Here is the input.
Amino acid sequence: MGTTGKIAIVIVNYKTPALVIDCLASLRAEAAQSDLAVYIGDADSQDGSVEQISGFIAQEALTWATCFPIGQNGGFAFGNNAVVKKYVLPDPDIAFVHFLNPDTYIHPGAVQALVSFLQDHPKAGIVGSRLENPDGSLRSSGFRTPAPWREFFRGIRLGVLDRLVPQAAIKIERLASSQRVDWVTGASFMVRRRVLDDVGLMDDGYFLYFEETDLMTRARKAGHEVWHVAQSRVVHLAGQSTGVRTGSQDDQPPARPSPFWLRSRSRYLRKHHGPLARMRANILFLTGDLLYRTHRILTGRPVRNPPHLWRDYLNTGRYDGESS
Here is the structure.
């Protein structure tokens, strides 16, 4: 199916030129079949990224791609906004904006699948790809809105409660088919141009994490649906573009949350659930964690928590400018 309107693919690079080059190579077939342009903004990498990526573009005659410096590393939202302001907003022919992480590569048809879904579903304003590991196994792609009440269930981590209250989980498990969700991962998602005109760009007050959640929450409040599209398959090499990894091995405790994540979580809760939302969320999360610890100790199993968990959550105010 052909597209109606031009597609802009927006990528922000920070010291990952090899990943960007691999991502560009995976987009060749899409560029041959669609009216698209790829804009790569470099966030002050200072490692020759612009020259390396631009050299690859020239060598391979990728006339649909351009790489340029955006002047500073202001975070994920700032970088994407800089690209959108420079190349997307001035071009009225652009109807779809595809935000794509540099640590991704696409399966053939992934971009067109997002466009086709938007064309077939007029109420859909934002659509996200099915994310996979390199071996084809599923990664988390669709989610429910973060809210203070859900923090209790995130803290207690009790299987019986997860089964009794499945809607409490932020992550939607085993998301193998297309369905409507609250938000999709920022690694690969497409927005109608008119949604950005309606609700604005990403909030660059988030340096890293929650910026896509915030954008999609605002979009849903304005009446635009958010969908996970299973036909758009994208491989995500998670953590390689940021250097921050939140996963862990089964025999190791979870990774300690970064200050970026804590700060962004606090900003999101305060922005969408009120000034006391962070406090309520922390009380519920830590209450759940206390019950989790008690249950593990009574059943003779190890407590699998990241180090300094309580200190980090109680000090969240120090990260975001609030009082503790």
